[in-house]
Amino acid sequence: MMRLQGKKVIQLVSNDFEDLELWYPVHRLREEGAIVEIVGEKANEKYIGKYGVPIVSDTAFADINPGDYDAILVPGGWSPDLLRRFDSVLKMVRHFDEQKQPIGQICHAGWVLISADVLKGVNVTSTPGIKDDMTNAGAVWHDEPVVVDGHIISSRRPPDLPDYMREFIAVLEKSKS
C-alpha cells in the first residue's frame, strides 16, 4: 500500500545541499507513492551537493504555485543560506505555514524558516550549530532526533533521517490534500 499516493511535495534545492538530507527524503517519499518535485532557482539546472552528488531541478521557484502541493522540504547543508535569499522561497514556506501543511526542515534548514519568520513559539530541533539562531527567532529548541510541532517537522542531522522521515510521512499522510 502506497501511503502517500496522490500527495505532491516540493523539495527545495540549491548548491551545497547536504547530499543525504536531500536524497534520503526524496527516495522515502517516492517509495510511499508521493510525487516529489525538485525545485531550484532555475528549471532543468544541475545542482551539486556538499559531497559531489548532483541533482537536476524539475521546476524553478518562480514557476511554483504552492497551492498545488501538499508539503515542502528544506534540505540541510549550506544551501539554506542560499535558499533564504529568495523571496519566492520564503513565500512558499509562509504559504505552507499559513495552510498548516507539512514543512520539513533538517540540520541548517532552520535558517530558511527563520528568514520566513514562522518559528515564534514553535518546538524545533536543528544542528546544534544554529541553536542560537533558532532560539533568537523565537523557537523552542530541543536536542532530539526529531521534533514534531503540528505541521513543522524538524531534525538534527543525517543519523536522524530514519526518525525524521517516519514522522514527516506520518504528518503528511494525515494532512489535507
From TrEMBL:
NCBIfam families: PfpI
Lineage: Bacteria, Bacillati, Bacillota, Bacilli, Bacillales
Family per similarity comment: Belongs to the peptidase C56 family.
Keywords, sorted A to Z: Hydrolase
Any one Gene Ontology molecular-function term assigned to this protein's record: hydrolase activity
Transmembrane regions: none
Entry superkingdom: Bacteria
Protein name as catalogued: DJ-1/PfpI domain-containing protein
CDD domains associated with the record: GATase1_PfpI_like (cd03134)
DJ-1/PfpI domain sequence ranges: 7-169
Xref: Pfam families: DJ-1_PfpI
